[in-house]
Amino acid sequence: HVTRLTPLAAQIEGDDSLRPTAASIRDRLDTVLDNPDLGSDDILLIAWASRAVTLDDVEHVTIGGQVVEERIPRLFFCTADTILRTGESDDEQLTLTSQVEERHHLISLEELYERADRCQAGIKLLLVDACRNNLSRNGCIALPDVPPPPDGVAALFSCSPGQRSCEDRDLAHGVFFYHVTEALRYEIGTFVHGQALEDVTTLTDLHAHVSAAVPAHLVEHDDFFIGAIQQPHLTGTNRETDTLVRIPPALLISPFSEDQVHEVQQVWAEFLGTQVIVENSIGIPLALIPPGEFMMGNPVANRADSGRQRVRLIQPYLTGIHEVTLGQFRTFVEDAEYVVEFEGGHRGGSGWNAAAGQMEFNDPLYDWQHTGWSPYEDNHPVVNVSWYDAIAFCNWLSRKENLREYYIVRNTTILPAGGNGYRLLTEAEWENACRAGTTTQWYHGNNSDGLIATGNVQDASDPKSDIDWNDGYRFTAPVGQFAPNAFGLFDMHGNAGEWCWDCYNTWIYSRRSGTTVDPVEHVPEVRFSFPFFVTQMYRDTRVRRGPSWFHQPGYSRASSRDYDSPGDRGCYWGFRVARTP
Fold first, then answer.
1. Which pTM value belongs to this model?
2. At 528, is the secondary structure helix, strand, or coil?
């Protein structure tokens, strides 16, 4: 379970309770820390990034018969609604703990210690990214060492007393938390400043990693940080050998055989505590795709998919073994009372005019229920759906299964919120899932004639086609009628094209070099034409992968790419869903 409180999260999700105010922080901490289901096998991780200030506790002690004043510094953290003034003037700053009132909205380090101490989790770790040179006083003074946490609680600070905690503008991140998250997110085989991230499994490993990586980062970018010194500091009595990250199975490196796929899928399923194939609440079977590496793209020049790049996907994912069907989409429309765009006056879809013997486009007569051909039944892939329709389906299915919605929807602005809710595949995930360890043009080999067994594409049943074989279907086929690939996925080479998350970029392969980790195109491509007018064609377009019943076999390669405006719909594309296990 992850709870995130940031100003940006509150703004994006339109939920003021996600602002990191003192009240919101205390409320969320209470909710998590008092959870009776937490036990010795659980890990509590509190990650705090904010400004820190030191205020003095004043005690009177007797020394040599005389009463003297002794000042003991205490560390406080600022929140989104902190006030550091005692009066109206900026000159009237807080200096003493006795001056702190509820209206100042400060949270002390001791309060965080006490709250973590009462939690029943087996491992309790506080990560603090905050400067420890007090800028709230005149000048810049070093904060004294912090008090140790209670037994069983550990605290890892981004820097040592007297140091500042640096931020890297290019990363839009604090240097400390950047290296913490890179270690804990577990990029297998990645080396940062000479240390392999797969070695970071315990608290001792994490401390050693950031203690080496953070200073090295500052030295590497000394032109910006100019001699800054930042040395992370660990304190507390958590067992140093406690495991923070379980070591996952190895990556699945392409090429690999079908037997290897099944073996690795089972190993990953056991590691994740799930099954290789799981069925969700509306009857969609989802296959587990292990993380791995593969060659993405096509070595043949002069194509949109020309060029090859090595891609590493570091997270496992589940994806539907079938495309979303007409019946499943109907369930969504009825349950969510969803209205597709063109029913409100927008342009329509496409379909088959049997009387005229031709396809018709952009006609409101054709929608997800009406394609003009028969049969088009509940077990066929749904078509004539826009990218926006697919996003709405994903969020509805997440709500239905009590998962966090993966997408934040603000009119036509769609942002990924993350989590384990339903989503579309990224373009890289789609091609990896399609190839299933193969390096050939199709997962059955390099001969397009093999599509008669693996994919419903254009064939001899189309009078205008020059193909001499017939796969048995003129238009869409019931899902699962053709041979699956090694991952157990059907119709990756035909039936319906599939929307992906990514924006379309023509030069995606030539722009990347080396091994690319989890590539995704969030920003639309902008192209220019003489004399410097922006060509709208590629702006706000989304990738479609996979061919359909409509396309010739040559367009059905694993690397084939296409695009459309997210509001467009056609009778030869649909989508399949994915989510994180």
1. 0.73
2. strand
